[in-house]
Amino acid sequence: MALAPRLVDAVNERLEEFLADRATILRSITDDLDPLAAFSKRFLSGGKRFRARFCSLGFDAVRGPDRGNGDRAPSAERYAVVSAAAALEVFHAAALVHDDLIDNSDTRRGAPAAHRVYEAQHRDGGWAGDAGEYGRATAILLGDLLLGWSDELLDEGLAALRDPSASRETRLEFNRMRTEVTVGQYLDILEERAWLTRPEEEQRARAERVVVHKSARYSIEAPLAIGGAIAGGSTPQLEALRAFGLPLGIAFQLRDDLLGVYGDPAVTGKPAGDDLREGKRTVLVAVARERLSPGQRRLLDELLGDPALDADQIRMLQGTIRDCGAVDVVEAEIAANTDRALAALASSDLDPGAARDLADLARAVTRRES
């Protein structure tokens, strides 16, 4: 995709500019805040920028061909979409900081998770109190800070738009996304704790509900709709973006679930089988439980969520889930949802060039290894 390098460069520049400005504000208060600014800059320097790319392509898909001025969008609109794409990356960073804290994860992208960074700062500094408690409290506040910054970034971009209806619609899309991912995270926590009291026949549907609300909408559907709204998209255009984005978002998260169990730590930056230690009640686990014998199911339930699982136990669980055919079922679901998304895209009236780029990106996010 020719667009991707230009977009990523623009988003990275916008993030660098924004974070430098916020670091100056923090420094004006006290240099004790330097660790917050430093971690934010480092954490936001990585990532694949999938959400930013979908946001920009949502804009291009609605806006259509050149208006004859030699640029696909006036500078104000392009500033707004780059700012929104950057805001999505900051929002994602906030969600990851909180997610790692909730899951008690040690690493993210091959480096210590935020709460572990601040736990080490406390321990190395010889400070009073409990290092783990300090790390957790600081990570909560860092996530909240990043969440607020994502709003500020979005608003700076929307202030440049000349169309107030586009600005309002974009803000509504962003607010909806924020609500969806927050309640989706709650549903994820709920399923990890309450699954034992739920009817067996409901567990797969409940896992699928988490996929939709925690990840699918916020990872792909919402960024597309936000980009489309900035472009002043009509209701049919935004619906076309959603018809493509939701099934693709489901496929995206199902791939993530497979990587959480079978991903290569050198590529994912997370320990092998991390989702098994965390006790994630994913669609993969729900399908496995449907297909396992009663004895195998009891063993899976007993071990899932044990943070002390060793490498042999992880390999045993990986083999059990694979051998019962659950991986094949999830792979088939990924393929079916990807096909559904591409069919919706092919039948839409969205800009053909942007649609081709979206199809390429769809294949990339569903075949990834990290």
From TrEMBL:
Keyword Disulfide bond among record annotations: no
PROSITE patterns assigned: POLYPRENYL_SYNTHASE_1, POLYPRENYL_SYNTHASE_2
User: Which keywords has UniProt assigned to this entry?
Assistant: Magnesium, Metal-binding, Transferase
Q: Which InterPro entries match?
A: Isoprenoid_synthase_dom_sf (IPR008949), Polyprenyl_synt (IPR000092), Polyprenyl_synt_CS (IPR033749)
Which GO BP terms, alphabetically? isoprenoid biosynthetic process
One of the record's GO molecular function terms: metal ion binding
* Family of this protein: Belongs to the FPP/GGPP synthase family.
What is the protein named? Answer: Polyprenyl synthetase family protein
